[in-house]
Amino acid sequence: MRATFKTITIKPHEQTLRECAEIMDAVIRGENVKEEKPQYTFTSFEAFRKAMTPQRFALLKVIRDKQPESIKELAAITSRDMKNISEDVKILLDMDLIEMEKHGKNKAPRLHYDGFMLEVAV
Question: What kind of architecture, by CATH, is found in domain 5-120?
Fold first, then answer.
């Protein structure tokens, strides 16, 4: 099975808008547009650092290694407060790095990708 990676980019908002406009113009002209690989974009490195904290990165590893059956179990494994774990899980879900898999009455966090690659525009 081939590993799948999500790309996280850091580039100015203006650059993202310009690239989006170029794609839309090509579609309007009837040109074929190549499919982009999954990505999530931040407008600055600081924004990325606020989202991908050491605690959230550690959660990704725990989810991979321990495969908890619920967010409650994830909190217990990490000895962290349920409220904080829930907030971190929500952000990781928003970034599409994890997904929730139904396990009986619970929803279990699972990695959506094998990893992520960071691309920084300069």
Answer: Orthogonal Bundle (1.10)
